[in-house]
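task queued by scheduler; priority normal; single chain, no ligands, no partner chains; default sampling; output format set to structure tokens
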Amino acid sequence: MANKTFKKKPKKPLISPAKKLFLIVLLIPVSVTVYFCVFLVWDNIKNFSSLHHEEKINIQEHFDIEIPEEYIPIYISAGEAYGVPWTLLAAHHRVETKFSTMKELISPAGAEGHMQFMPCTFVGWNHPTCSGLGEGEIPAVEKTNPEMIEKYGGFGVDANGDGIADPYDIEDAIYSAANYLSKSGASDGELRKAIFNYNHSEEYVEDILYYYHLYEEVGEELVQLSRKN
């Protein structure tokens, strides 16, 4: 029996060249549309970010030093805890240490930390070493001990719950300032009296009130921006 050779039939393409051409022509406008939509979304995101950044700059553009955004929530929570305006805390922080940008957070008189507390005010004037301006000779272990501060009637606060009330910790310092200002009358609206108690100088009072009113003008906007981030 003779061998028969069978020729394989060529496979038909799944898509004919005509259909391929049709699909290509169809996909071109679709691709262009998708690309254009993606471009628009990305452009809007960039514009929003840019606008948001400009908005922040514009709000603080007339300040000599901008309020660091990361401190605003601390001012707000401390202010709410002690019933004092957060903008007053920001004003004190600005005047005392220029928002903690000074090289050394200790004054020639001995005031310490972000909000410049005299040790005897922070720990308590009932401490046996306290007299004069309030530098005292308080042992380091007592300076940050909440139990000692309570015992001696000080204003230092352990704001972050780590068992230490530290004037060099930003949260503790701001909460302590809020505590002091509140007990000095700020929570009752007696701002001038409270500020004068913080530092017995009329010039100091005027400086604090200047920044307080400056920050009050844009306080709501700054709060909203800090909550968006």
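post-processing summary
- The mean pLDDT is 86.
- The domain at 69-228 is CATH 1.10.530 (Lysozyme).
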